[in-house]
Write a structure and sequence with these properties.
InterPro entries: DNA_brk_join_enz (IPR011010), Integrase-like_cat_sf (IPR013762), Integrase_catalytic (IPR002104), Integrase_recombinase_N (IPR010998), Phage_Integrase (IPR050808). Pfam families: Phage_integrase. The chain contains 16 helices and 12 strands. With 431 residues, the protein is of the alpha+beta class. The chain has 3 domains: 73 residues, no CATH class; 81 residues; 214 residues, Intergrase catalytic core (hpI Integrase, Chain A, Orthogonal Bundle), CATH 1.10.443.10.
């Protein structure tokens, strides 16, 4: 190993210093006259080589600070824990431009969720901050003060953690300042009455209030328990009327206002076979008679091909004028458009009420279209179906999650408890 230089750190000559060496380097009258002094006030430059062998330097006000820095950086270079400070001086916005192309999710809904977390929350606050300027306390205060809601804190912190964790891996910063930041919002708690789906009788009232075209669609959703994107994306090819089953193979998703076809359900468990009840079969046959969907098989990346969809809106296959040209309406069901019809129907049925979301503070209408799925799961449990079978039919990876999400208090729970307590039996004390 070569001998260390005796002039490292070295003092940098200053134009404002009046010592003999600085006066010699920057003599008057070319440089302004300054007061003569014995000791130099110039900064100290510490020079070192990074792990790649590149010459690097950093200036300090005092010689002791420069020597301490050299001792530390030489140790980190030997131990391979060295991070070039300049690599951490890029802004978080610049790091996003490097990081996102390598981590952009293929699933559209996941991609949009992460983009929303970045553009709405992270970029406006931290985009112009340098990576090495981010601190734990600043991020924790921001989460507590500015991020409202448990779900928002969860999603935003997840993305910020991923970005800063990879900045550590890329040797831009020595540690992740968001690593131990905690969520301060509590998970939302709703009243059981706001979670319980409508009864069968209430659904009949809603169905009667829906326009005739949408009644089979409501029947199909109630009797299959499919997610919105699953039944709106159901193609004729995947409806087996001989075996009376539905094969869930793809979905329709909303990509920031544009409906797109996606070949992957919510999870891998989403690929499943769902039975057709007589009511669901009649609903499907009604829609098939109306639209005569094609039984062709097209590739997911070839476009929507709405002519294959079973459940579509009333304007499907009709034409309208756009810029003087006749255009065929695809009629793919949009959640926002159907919601208008749904709200009118539940109001006419006399069961609608406004429910305040405890997390966002916004008011929402009850019941929701997704409550069909809740009621479907509750019916399966009430019929004594095993947890693993309910899990499969609903397309969930964990059975416990199915029970927690979709099983609600039975309609006769209070009556059953009253009968159990008044049937003459006494409670036993258990020690």
């Amino acid at each position: 190993m070569g001998r260390r230089a005796t002039n490292n750190p070295r003092q940098i000559r200053s134009k404002s210093c009046g010592c003999s060496l600085c006066m010699e380097e920057y003599p008057p009258p070319k440089y302004p006259e300054r007061k003569r002094r014995r000791d130099c006030i110039g900064s100290w430059q510490a020079r070192y080589r990074d792990p790649a062998g590149r010459q690097t330097a950093k200036n300090f006000d005092k010689k002791g600070e420069a020597e301490d820095f050299l001792d530390e950086v030489r140790t980190r270079v030997r131990r391979r824990t060295y991070n070039d400070p300049k690599r951490g001086e890029i802004t978080l916005e610049a790091w996003w431009a490097l990081w996102w192309p390598a981590h952009e999710p293929q699933r559209i809904t996941t991609r949009n969720r992460k983009l929303s977390s970045w553009t709405v929350h992270i970029q406006p606050k931290w985009g112009q901050y340098k990576l090495n300027a981010l601190t734990y306390l600043d991020i924790q205060a921001w989460v507590s003060r500015d991020l409202k809601g448990y779900a928002t804190q969860t999603k935003v912190l997840e993305l910020l953690n991923m970005m800063l964790r990879d900045a550590v891996r890329d040797q831009r910063i020595p540690f992740n300042p968001a690593d131990n930041v905690t969520k301060t919002a509590s998970p939302p708690v709703k009243h059981p009455d706001d979670l319980r789906p409508p009864t069968t009788e209430q659904y009949e009232l809603v169905r009667a209030a829906l326009p005739v075209w949408y009644q089979p669609i409501a029947d199909f959703a109630e009797e299959t328990g499919l997610r919105w994107g699953e039944f709106t994306g159901l193609r004729r090819l995947y409806l087996d009327l001989e075996e009376d089953v539905i094969k869930v193979r793809e979905v329709v998703i909303d990509d920031r206002g544009t409906l797109r076809r996606q070949g992957v359900p919510k999870t891998s468990a989403g690929f499943r076979t769902v039975p057709l009840t007589p009511k669901a079969k009649n609903a499907a046959l009604t829609m098939i008679e109306r639209l005569n969907p094609a039984e062709t098989q097209t590739a997911v990346d070839s476009g929507m091909h709405p002519e294959e969809l079973i459940l579509r809106g009333p304007r499907a296959a009709t034409t309208k004028m756009i810029n003087g040209k006749k255009v065929t309406v695809d009629g793919v069901l949009s959640r926002n458009n159907f919601r208008r019809v749904w709200i009118t129907a539940i109001q006419q049925a006399g069961i609608a009420r406004m429910v305040k979301n405890p997390e966002t503070g916004r008011k929402e209408w009850w019941p929701r279209v997704s409550d069909y799925r809740d009621r479907y799961a509750s019916r399966l449990h009430e019929a004594g179906m095993s947890e693993v079978d309910v899990q499969y039919v609903l397309g969930h990876e964990r059975g416990g999650k199915v029970t927690w999400l979709y099983t609600h208090r039975g309609e006769k729970a209070v009556q059953n408890a009253r009968e159990a307590l008044s049937n003459g039996r006494h409670l036993r004390a258990v020690s």
